[in-house]
Description:
By secondary structure, this protein is of the alpha+beta class. The protein is 27% helix and 38% strand.
Amino acid sequence: MARLSTIAWGAERFRFGPWQADGKVAYLAGFSAHPTVAAIDAALERLRTEGYQSVVTSAMRPEEIPGFLAAGFTRRERLVVLQRAISRREEPPQLSVRRCGIGEIDRVLRVDHAAFSAPWQLDGAGIREALRATPRARIRVNDGPSGIAGYAICGKAGRTGYLQRLAVDPPSWGQGVARALIADALRWLSRNRARGVLVNTQESNQRAIELYRNLGFQDDRTHLMVLEREL
Length: 231
């Protein structure tokens, strides 16, 4: 995902850029709470003029969806939202976790691409977008015998924490890497007086869902949706 550009329609705003490395598929994000069909149609026309052939949205809350459905979008993926309260004394991670260096992003991306299938892999711009999604954010890594074994991006807005991204290199699955990264994120949120944390993952990712549940996360009533349509 390259740096995102802005589309303005009256008071409504959208951000867009290529979806991953595919210059024919647009990624659309950053819309207002209740996007109107007129604004969405204007955004689609801009994407057509930019040469895109189809479009995928970011994960959308229920109140953002109706206008997109009316504009011809269909469901691509349903995301499960889980939430957990933050305690004053969160347990420390059982494995070492450290700050990610500026020059290590390429190694982080290799882990991300190994952990996720092609449609959901991040690039450097995607990492930056995740870090900018909240007023405060951090990226931490765990090192394995062959280099970075996993990484996590955690953010905070107000009193709510967000586990923005968690990826573990498949050879390191089952070794406690994800648990350590989550524990480190919870400790950071606790130190910064967050009251709760939210995370979302694909409905099909049962491995991750079970891990979060085992760590005290509970299903939230809200579900997010990623939509798509041809242009």
